[in-house]
Amino acid sequence: MTEIEIRVGLKPGMADPEGANVQKALRLLGFDSVGAVASARCYRVTLELPETEALAEAERMCRHLLANPVVHDYSITVAE
Amino acid sequence: MTEIEIRVGLKPGMADPEGANVQKALRLLGFDSVGAVASARCYRVTLELPETEALAEAERMCRHLLANPVVHDYSITVAE
């Protein structure tokens, strides 16, 4: 059994209204050191597979369902 | 300048309809080894601070804005 963390973010240059709003809100709250904020969706998926196969399966999940290659970048890691 | 990754997930036992729907969709697509799926929001925040101070500032951001302590767990890491 392997726990995989999949992070689906936006490609550089794609509009990210959630990130922009978080940035604005943080600055209004006085967090003056805040620069860019980028939002992403993360999925923690438990797979009944050993690590190597789980990583390959997660890659297929991203290609088939979780990420849209036109707008999304994704990364896959084994969760600690 | 430090890039911080903030992950805001749901506390155990909180309803996670997005995670449940992703799980259902993956199984319908034939990913039979999928067990639990938990969704989370992630924020990549750039801070004009050295690493230690940036981590402390991110902790404050979570407490003041990004996470609701009633329903959310969060984790903060320095992004690679």
Specify the number of helices of chain A: 2
Look up the CATH topology of chain A: Mth169, Chain: A
**How many domain units of chain A?**
1
The stretches of 5 or more residues of chain A where confidence is low (pLDDT under 50) are none
Rg for CA atoms of chain A: 16 Å
Spatial ordering of strands, largest sheet of chain A: 2-1-3
Q: What is the residue-averaged pLDDT of chain A?
A: 96
Residues in helix, % of chain A: 25-40%
- Termini distance of chain A? 13 Å
- Biggest protein-protein contact in the assembly: A-B, 33 and 33 residues
The oligomeric state of the chains shown is: homodimer
Within CATH, the superfamily of chain A carries the name: Phosphoribosylformylglycinamidine synthase subunit PurS
Name the CATH architecture of chain A: 2-Layer Sandwich
Query: Could you say which structural class the secondary elements and strand pairing of chain A correspond to?
Result: alpha+beta
| Overall CATH class of chain A | Alpha Beta
Question: Can you describe this structure?
Answer:
- 2 copies of one chain form a homodimer.
- Chain A has 80 residues and is of the alpha+beta class.
- Chain A has a single domain (2-78), classed as Mth169, Chain: A.
- The first copy, chain A, has helices at residues 17-28, 51-66; strands spanning 2-10, 34-47, 72-78.
- In chain A, strands 2-1-3 form a 3-stranded antiparallel β-sheet.
- The longest helix of chain A is centred in the C-terminal third of the chain and has 16 residues, at 51-66.
- The mean pLDDT of chain A is 96.
- At the A-B interface, helix 1, strand 2 and helix 2 of A face helix 1, strand 2 and helix 2 of B.
